[in-house]
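Human: Respectfully, please carefully check these tokens:
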Amino acid sequence: MIPIAARATILIERPGFTDVQGSVRYDSWETPGLIKSVDVELVMDETSRARMKFFDPDFTLIDAFSGYTDKVTVSIYFGHDEDLGLPIFEGILTEIGRDRGLTSFTVSDLAFVMKLWKRTGYKNKKDDLAIVRDLVTRNLTPEGGKLQFSPPPSPKNLELHDAMTQDAQTDWEHITERLREAGLHYYVRFDTVYARYPAGYGAPVLTLRPEKQEDLLDGWGFTFHTLAGRDGRPTVVAHRRRGVAGKRAEGKAGQASTTAIAATESGTDPLYSHLTVKKDMPRPSKSKLTARAIAQRELEREHAFDGSYETVLTPGFVRADVLETVRVEGVGRLQSGDYIIEAVKYHFAPGELSRRIELYRDVQGN
């Protein structure tokens, strides 16, 4: 059986241009040799990007974009059939390069429009997700539609900000700051900014069996490492200060603070007379503080397991994205189990299409 060659199609749109280059499509099947390579990186907590190189010895392609603006959008399709379905990636052309006979394009996800201008503003009586939604949806794609925001399915109850200032920041800088504070991952796909809590393990979208997969390329591996800096609390801490009449004052952790507050409020013990308790400061509710603290801790958790593998993609391959689950089997009792996807990276060159998936897993994982 003759193998079906991998195919890449790149659709470039320049809204507002009326010349013949207002819309152009490059296809690896129709113009062999034109597309030298395409690399797509789908990631979270940063900008997803694509980089492509074209054989362009006569400057034909690069000259067509001499009037380049930030309105150029690029859609990338991968597959093995006439019908390639939905694009793998869509974004805005942000860089054009030249190296000998090759012209290169770098494309950033559509949220790049949020990075163009620094702004100053105020948001009153709104929580982080409401602030993010306002900032995302006020930005327009090159086609003129609004960017969309997809919040987590079951958002935690966060406190409202009395006054939140965006001080000479781009909208992208401000929303990423707010999302990290709320303990959320973020990523952009097409015209939507997604916010999600660190994922639990779900139904696997892919299964890796290294000893049984002919499509697996060399270089796969998994690592376990002992975690450092884990949360802990000593049971007893001695604290010392000079007491009354030269006597030493000592106690256990937590004891001095509660004793000091009681003594200061009553005015009965000269040992704590130097302390003042301020009781009129507003405090967020304990439940909201706890929800935020737990979310931030989960976001910043160091993962005990990480790994990656690369496969040749064949017709009908299953798509995968960040925060989805991959089941790994046959790599030993320690490292087999379910992993979460951290990044998905596609590579196309004439005659080949491959995908590298980067994974992590916590000690508590399946």
Confidence is low (pLDDT under 50) at residues 233-241, 252-258, 277-281. The longest helix spans residues 286-299. DSSP finds five helices and 20 strands in the chain.
